[in-house]
Amino acid sequence: MTGIDEGSGGSAEHADVAVARIVGAQTLERGLDLLERAAREPMSMLDLIRQSGINKGVVYRLVSVLTARNYLAMTGDGRLRGGATLLQLGHVTSAFTDIVAVAQPHLEALAQRTGLSAFLARRDGDHSIHLSRVAGSERIAVTSQPGTRRLLPETGLGKTLMSDDDPAACARLCERVEARYRGALFEQLAAVRATGVLNQIGPAPDLINSVCAPVRDAAGRIIGAINIAAPAHYLDAEAMVAFNPLIAETGRSVSRELGGFAHDAGRPKPV
Questions:
Q1: Is 234 helix (H, G, I), strand (E, B) or coil?
Q2: Cα(62)–Cα(64) distance, rounded to whole angstroms?
Q3: What is the pLDDT of residue 92?
Q4: What is the C-alpha separation between 271 and 257, in angstroms, rounded?
């Protein structure tokens, strides 16, 4: 009697399925790589092939699918760029993304690591609005609550939010605040653009210091700002400098989770 080894046939079938899954995953990864490259920087097909290192025939097949579904589109000069579907999905995603929910765990981590209160704010015209506060362990704390509204040049968060404004707009805002808020303003704005962080030495009588960083969206626009803030005897100039890398990286981390941009050498770039 001839026996039939059912197990061997099953094993071969399972192996075929496993191989198909691996190939499918590799194809997806290659397609996503091409999509990300062209969406971040429009480029020719030749440049896309060269930069991706993917076989020319595979690139053509994947780009054909991506353009057919409008994830990629061709510019007038023959370069590939992000298409309408990609823009639509980005708009839908941003509409349902809550900056407070994304930033909250980062604020909690800041408060825990520094022992100081951490804040999140967004811009509303010429004002900043506090969106969230996480208390630190300091005995005398900054207690600005969500909903607090200040003219932009009056706080470190506000200055960070206006740091991409043109000089004329900044000068107009300066005219709206007391002289004590104007000191070193333009130097501070330049520092945010160059380093991604702003150090605020608070004026008398409050003497509240802060270290701030912007939060950017996928277009590189500033959509929020985070900071730690405390009375000067908790956060002196030396401590502010020491916290600069942590605050800058936190701003970049929140930006990344929102699909946004990092800040490097005075210009935003994809993260």
A1: coil
A2: 5
A3: 62
A4: 10
pLDDT-derived band at 5 (thresholds 50, 70, 90) equals: very low
Cα distance between residue 80 and residue 39, in whole Å: 8
Instruction: Give the pLDDT mean for 83-110.
Output: 81
Distance CA 111, CA 233 (A): 17
Q: How far apart are CA 155 and CA 203, in angstroms?
A: 10
Number of domains in the chain: 2
**In this structure, are 164 and 145 located in the same domain?**
yes
Q: How many CB atoms lie within 10 A of CB 241?
A: 12
* Bond from prior residue into 205 cis (ω within 30 degrees of 0): yes
**Angle (CA) 253 254 259, round 5°:** 95
What rounded mean pLDDT belongs to the chain?
85
Residue 103 near residue 216 (C-beta atoms within 8 A): no
pLDDT at 159 over 80: yes
Residue 1 inside a domain? The answer is no
Domain span at residue 123 reads 97-270
- What lies within 8 Å, CB to CB, of 109 at 6+ separation is 250
Q: Are residues 18 and 69 in the same domain?
A: yes
For residue 92, give the amino acid letter.
Answer: V
| Alpha carbon 262 to chain centroid, angstroms | 6
Q: Does residue 115 register a pLDDT over 50?
A: yes
- CA-closest candidate to residue 216, choices 152, 150, 164, 151: 164
